[in-house]
Design a protein that fits this description.
Elements: H1 2-30, H2 37-48, E1 53-56, H3 63-73, E2 74-75, E3 78-82, H4 90-93, E4 94-99, E5 104-109, E6 116-120, H5 127-130, H6 134-139, E7 141-144, E8 147-150, E9 156-161, H7 174-179, E10 182-184, H8 191-200, E11 214-215, H9 216-227, H10 233-248, E12 252-254, H11 258-274, H12 282-293, E13 298-299, H13 301-307, H14 313-325
Parallel strand pairs: 1-9, 1-10, 2-11, 3-6, 6-9
Antiparallel strand pairs: 4-5, 7-8, 12-13
Length: about 325
């Protein structure tokens, strides 16, 4: 009994530490990003679920500010890549350089070798350059000239992109979009937040005062905590049912991949932990469905005519409809 009590005490202590660290990260980011709590929480969810984050919106609404604030709030290595039409794959992954003194090739790592990689305006680079991220985002490694190099842990890509209707952009290939766990949109600030911005950012940027509130080791502990969140058989079946429904839907010509199902559950575990639970509820899947699935689905031509850019409101409506029509499991969802 004593061992069981100690185990419960340790579990409560770990949950308290997790909640304290998460609250600090959110607090720090919100000193930079005003009035966007949902977007900030989604960004932290992706980081804790070991996923990649895509922030899509028009220029000037704070996409890069959010990415940089999240990166600066944790004590990890951070590299930033400005995607441009002339960027080459080797500019991201690195290149082998011949060392004349040693008479051998030496690998020079590119900016992808960091815990957090910020990809600014990722869809301004060519599809060939965008594809350089595929292996690293899926397998946390890079292969160059026959050699394979592991990326540091944790590893997360936070990419921003402008809507594809804007000049000088390339649409992300389906395989690339599928690598991103969560896609969010910033939206315009409300009137009060925009007025506060005018008053506080005249002389300095709020990013200047952001310092890490958790170390790499503490972040890894938080990620481990998320991994241990319980997912019942009923909730797993619910996630699969939602994914299966997208593949049968008459308004979609490409449904959710198995990777999407996995990432929906992983994101739900992070959301549960952030809400103080050690088990996932169907509500967690419902709340994340649009952010996790919306950018992966392809509409039929009939629906595409009214959706415009990937992830707009019409596609969100399709996901909402599918989730609403999927029966919620009746079995137990908490640990025994």
């Amino acid at each position: 009994m004593a061992g069981s009590m100690m185990s419960n005490t340790e579990r409560i202590d770990a949950a308290s530490v997790f909640h304290s660290h998460a609250s600090e990260i959110l607090r720090v980011i919100e000193t930079v990003i005003d009035g966007k709590r949902e977007a900030v929480e989604m960004a932290l969810t992706a980081l804790l679920a070991e996923g990649h984050l895509l922030i899509e919106d028009v220029p000037g609404v704070g996409k890069t500010m959010l990415a940089r604030a999240l990166a600066k709030s944790v004590g990890c290595s951070v590299n930033r890549v400005q995607f441009t039409p002339d960027l080459l794959p080797s500019d991201i992954t690195g290149v082998s350089v011949y060392d004349q003194s040693e008479r051998r090739f030496e690998f020079k790592p590119g900016p992808i070798f960091a815990n957090i990689v910020i990809g600014d305006e990722i869809n301004r680079a060519s599809p060939k350059t965008q594809s350089a991220l595929l292996e690293s985002m899926e397998e946390a490694q890079v292969t160059v000239d026959g050699g394979t190099y592991r990326l540091p842990s944790p590893f997360t890509v936070i990419a921003t992109q402008n809507p594809v209707e804007m000049e000088g952009t390339y649409p992300l290939p389906e395989a690339q979009r599928d690598r991103f766990m969560i896609r969010i949109s910033m939206g315009y600030p409300d009137e009060d937040a925009e007025l506060a911005m005018l008053r506080t950012r005249e002389l300095s940027s709020p990013l200047d005062s952001v310092t890490p509130v958790v170390s790499t080791e503490q972040l890894l502990d938080m990620i481990h905590k998320v991994r241990t969140v319980f997912v019942s058989r009923a909730v797993e079946q619910y996630a699969v049912a939602i994914a299966q429904a997208t593949r049968r839907d008459a308004e979609l010509r490409l449904g959710a991949s198995p990777r999407a199902t996995l990432q929906l559950v992983r994101a739900a575990k992070a959301r549960a932990a952030l809400n103080g639970r050690d088990f996932v509820l169907p509500d967690d899947l419902d709340a994340l469905a649009i952010a996790v699935l919306g950018h992966r689905l392809l509409p039929t031509s009939r629906v595409a005519g009214r959706t415009g850019n990937i992830g707009t409101s019409a596609m969100s409506d399709v996901v909402q409809r599918i989730v609403a029509a999927t029966p919620v499991p009746l079995g137990a969802v908490g640990p025994a």
